[in-house]
Each structure stands twice: as structure tokens, then as C-alpha cells.
Amino acid sequence: MSLRTMVQHGKRKRPLLRNGFLLHHDNVEPHIAHCVLYVLQQSNVEILTHNAEILTHPPYTPDLSPCDFWPFPQRTISRQTFCKQQSMRKGCRGTVEKALIERTFTCF
């Protein structure tokens, strides 16, 4: 699938994302080439960044891939309601810590 096809497919699949969508991928050379970044920018796709820089993410390391990890806590957290920002932070932190502990035990 080409990059342009992927962007078009994403827009069709998620039409309510009028402000574009977020793309998280590793920083292998083909993924961060200038032509790729240009197409993403023209297609209103934001690359997951921190302080306006592309996140450093080691290439080809499935055991360290944050994109595989974050959907699971999100499913748990989305079922909860929080009255205050402090309680939300506490709930999110607890969910992530619990998931890390469980994941560690399944690995070893």
C-alpha cells in the first residue's frame, strides 16, 4: 500500500477526523525520508512528535514498540469516568503500571 493510498484510506475510514490524524511509526530511513514527510504534511497527517521533533524510536524492535502497547490501557481507561484531572492521572498511571507488571510476568 502506498503512502497516499494509506492516507486516503484513513480519511475514508475515519471521516470525523477533519483535522487529520496522527501517525506513529519507527524512525527507519524510508519512514523519515523528506519525500515521505512532505506527503504526510500535505495530507494533513501529523507525525507523533515531542517538542516538535520526531520521537526517537529504535527501528525494527517489536519488543519495544509503544504502538503495540498503548491500545490495551486505552481500552481499560475509556470505560472509566473521572471528575478531576488529578484522579484521571492517578487512574491512568495505575492502569499503565498494572499493565506493565502483567506484561513483565508474561515475558519472563
Summary?
This protein has 108 residues and is mainly alpha-helical.
Your description of this structure?
It is a single chain. The chain is mainly alpha-helical. It is built from 5 helices and 4 strands. Strands 1-2 form a two-stranded parallel sheet. The chain has a two-stranded antiparallel ribbon with strand order 3-4. Helix 4 packs across helix 5.
Any descriptors?
nucleic acid binding; RNaseH_sf; 108 residues; 4 strands; Histone-lysine N-methyltransferase SETMAR; extended
Instruction: Spell the H/E element sequence.
Output: HEHEEEHHH
**Helix count, DSSP H or I runs of 4 or more residues:** 5
Q: Rough shape?
A: extended
The main β sheet shows up as:
2 strands, parallel
Class from secondary-structure proportions: mainly alpha
Please describe the topology of this protein:
Blueprint: H1 3-13, E1 21-23, H2 34-42, E2 45-47, E3 49-50, E4 53-54, H3 66-69, H4 71-77, H5 85-107
Parallel strand pairs: 1-2
Antiparallel strand pairs: 3-4
Helix pairs in contact: 4-5
